[in-house]
Protein 1
Amino acid sequence: MQSKEKKSEAAVTRPKTNATSSTHIVTAEAVQAEEVPTIPLGSLQTINALQAEVSVHSVASTRAVSVPSPLVVQPSEYHRSFAEWLQVWWDGVRPKYLLLSFLPVLLGSVLAWTQTATAKNPFGQFHLNHFIATAVAIVLLQIGANLINDYYDYLRGVDTSNAFGPGGLIQQGLINPINVLTYGLAVLGFGLLIGVIVAVRGGPLVFLLGLIGVLCAYFYSATSRALSSLFLGEVTAFLVFGPLITLGAYLIQSAGTLQPSVFVYSLPLGLLAAAVVHVNNMRDVEGDTHAGRRTVASLLDLQLSRTLLLALLVVAYGIIVLMAIPRGAPHLLLITLWTLPLVVVVVSGALRTDSLAGLHLVMRQLIRLETYFVLLLSAALIITALLPLLAHIPTHLLPF
């Protein structure tokens, strides 16, 4: 019995192989069929015979054939032209937001010009070179601030996945982060240099306003104690894009003289700019909260944030109405109310949406609203200044 069991066990553990077969199919005398799967040789030959044939045809003469552009292009395979690099940087500095700094320069310069219009000199004195230099300096300061803002937001992880947030130079991997900071500081310094040169005409107060503006531009997002992270984003925007720039432009254009009414005229611009920043923070509230950035929008809920936006708009237009209604006041200021339909669009958009794209559109409409507001306000000031002087303007200089 013991010898038979050993023979049976040997038969299982030592399978036989067919030495004459070239297919190397393993066979066993005592192994179950499901333990060693085998494929008949005839089946393999049949599968090989049924394989599809591959035929190659030339498409060189076919006009409809085109090779699509690759989704990902390696840097070694593609080099941007100079025009393409300009476009990259132009998109990165967010040109549509530069109106926030240019509009108060325009208003301050117009206010200064209206003070010089007299019966002897109906067209007044407008120093175009000082206006251009002031506008260039202010715009460069904002561009530098935008680039610095992108760099420090990148360091803190703010807006890393928000397609509507930063300029995208770093987030899209287009520019090295340290280069963005370097160029931002360079542009900021260049704007500061031009500002110092042009501020000589405005006097010491312009230097003080300019210093405050530069500090706000840098510390708005720089360092861990940035102004934008301390619930001060709206306040900073109100001061910089309202009184600071408007008063500075007025002083430069008027050679250092100042009227108290200029400050009042600057308030609506500051309130509208604060509204733009507030909607921006409403749009980015989720990413700001995750990154530890504290804004007014992150402190309030959505309903209260909408209420604050409405309050900023109401106060901005209320100031203009209060300045235009009294007896002897410049009533033409009321033509700024022509922008009220756009206000309705902004408010209704903010009330109906809470998505990133929707709030981004509201912010773009707010910038458009402020642009029309300032243009109409400037036109009202110019017409108000010229109407009493029409009789003193030589007829050959009149366009009608």
Protein 2
Amino acid sequence: MALAPLPIEVEVEPAVELLVTWEDGHRSRYPVYYLRGFCPCASCQGHGGAWNFHHIDAPKLTAIEEVGSYALRLVWDDGGTTHDTGLYTFETLRELCPCAACRAAQGETHPTARMPAALAPPL
């Protein structure tokens, strides 16, 4: 499996989205509810390997921490409860990219196929 490109810039609008610019020029826009819903931690995803979406009403992204040179830790406020156990590896972030090109490339294996259509980010 080829290594995912590395991010070269990460921007955030805490109540809205995370924007990642990758070294290959691709730009990914992640709504915060989407990233929180696909938190990769074991308590959210289990150990089965398939993506499960967990809708959280109005999550707040309160912090972003770099983890080595391979991941970001996103810290969430889920309405009074802090959730900070998910490490979003760069590979995971690229796999989660909700843009039309990434959805088309992954087809039915794209994570958006496993969430309610009404909640899927617009193309």
